[in-house]
Amino acid sequence: MKKHLVLVGGGHAHMTVMLRLAEIAQKGHHLTLVSTSSHHYYSGMGPGMLSGNYRPQDIRFNVKKMVQDRGANFIEDHVIRIDPSSRILHLASGKNLNYDVASFNTGSGVPLEKIAAKSDDILPVKPIINLIKGRQKLLSLLEKGTPKILVLGGGPAGVEIVANVWAAAQKQKGEADITLVSGSGLLKKHPPKVADLAAYSLKKRNIQILQGAHVTHMENGKANLSNGQTLDYDLAFAALGVTPSPVFRDSGLPVGPDGGLMVNDHLQSVAYPEIFGGGDCICFEKHPLPKVGVYAVRENPILFHNLLSSLEETPLIHFEPQEDYLLILNMGDGTGVFHRRNIIFHGKPAFIIKNWIDQRFMKTFQVSGERNENLEPEQD
Q1: Nearest C-alpha neighbor of 233 from the set 121, 148, 151
Q2: Are residues 281 and 249 in the same domain?
Q3: In a 10 Å sphere around its CB, with 0-12 CB exposed, 13-18 middle and 19+ buried, how is residue 323 labelled?
C-alpha cells in the first residue's frame, strides 16, 4: 500500500535517505522534505568558511534540488508541533501534514538564554549559516580598525572558531584582539595532550585563553564573567554547547535530559515506532551520544534502511555507535590537531587528512554544479 514518508530537516543524518529517495519512490511511496531552508550547511567545514578557506557554496547541499530531482516534494517551513496519535505535523505556516512514517534530523541550536544575550553582535555558531553573517560582520569590523572579538566555549567548536577568526583577520591583512572564554577548561572532555597542542597553537598567535570562568551576562558590548571580570567586545561567537529543538518535549514525545527525541537502537522513537530521528536532535536510549557530526554520518545508512523497512513492513537493523571517534581540529593556519585513540599530533598533515575527509563527504552528496550557484539574497 502506498504510504507517505516525511523527512523533517535536511541534515547530515538524512543525506543517504535523500540521495536514494528514488529507490523509495520506486516502491510506490509518496515523499516530502520539510526544511527551513533550501540549503543545508556542513558543520565540519563551517569554521573554514569563516576564515575564507572555503566559500559558502563549497560547504552546502542544495537539499531542495536533491529531493525534487528524485521525485519528492519540498516544503520550506518548520514543524512546531507533532501529533503522534493522529500522525499529523503542524507547521509554522498554519498548514498540517499527514504522515505514515516521519524522520527528524533538525539539528540543534546554541541556547543564548544562558547568558541573556539578545544582540546582533552575539552570534550562535549553530546553525552553521550564522557563520556567513559572522564572517561579513568580522570583515566589516576589520576594515574599520582592530576589533575585540570574543569566542565563548572551550569545546572543539570554540577552538576551531577562535582559530579561524584569527585566520580571517590574517587573510584581510588586519589585526584583531581575540579572546577565547573557555569556561571550566579547554577541551576538558579530551586528553590533556589535545588541549595542550591546541592551546600552544592559539597562544603563539597571541590569542588569549581565559579558563576557570564563564560569561554570565552580555549587553551593550560588555561581557560579565563569573570571576567578576568584564570584557569589552565588538563581536562575539557563542559555542556554549547545543540543545535540540523543544518540539519533541512540547509535543509530549519521550525525550532525553536535553529534550532530544528518545530513540532505540533502530533510531526509532521508543513510544511511536513510525517516528525516527538522527543527528543532534535525538537522544540514544542506551546512552547519550556526543553532539558530533560523525554519529550523524554513521546513522545515514541505518536510517535509509529502517525508513524503507518501516514503509515496507520488513525487519529493521540496529545502529551500533562506535566507542570513540576521529577528532581533527581545524586550527585555521593550515594545521590541525589530530586525535584518534592514542594517536595525537599537531601539524599540516592533520589538516590535509581532515580536508580530504570533508571534501569526499561533500562530493558524495552535492548536486552537479552546486558550487557554481549564487547565494540566495537573504544569505548575502
Answers
A1: 148
A2: yes
A3: exposed
What cell numbers appear for 99 in the block?
A: 504522515
Do residues 327 and 293 make contact, with C-beta atoms less than 8 angstroms apart?
no
Q: Per-residue pLDDT averaged across 65-89, rounded?
A: 95
Q: Rounded to whole angstroms, how far apart are CA atoms 254 and 379?
A: 35
| Spatial distance between the Cα atoms of 89 and 72, rounded to a whole number of angstroms | 17
pLDDT of 11 higher than 80: yes
| 207 in the same domain as 129 | yes
What cell was used for 353? 587528512
Higher pLDDT, 376 or 182: 182
Question: The cell 556567513 sits on which residue?
Answer: 132
For residue range 127-149, list pLDDT tens digits in order.
Answer: 899 999 999 999 999 999 999 99
Cβ neighbours for 221, distance < 8 A, ≥ 6 positions apart = 121, 232, 233, 234
What cell was used for 240? 556554549
* Domain carrying residue 261: 4-36+77-108+243-312
- The pLDDT of residue 220 is 86
Q: How far apart are CA 106 and CA 350, in angstroms?
A: 30
Query: Given 193, 218, 241, which residue is the final one in a domain?
Result: 241
- Annotate 116-145 with DSSP letters as a single string: T---TTEEES-STTHHHHHHHHHHHHHHHS
Same domain, 27 and 121: no
Contact 242, 126 (CB under 8 A): yes
- Is 223 within 8 Å of 233 (Cβ atoms)? yes
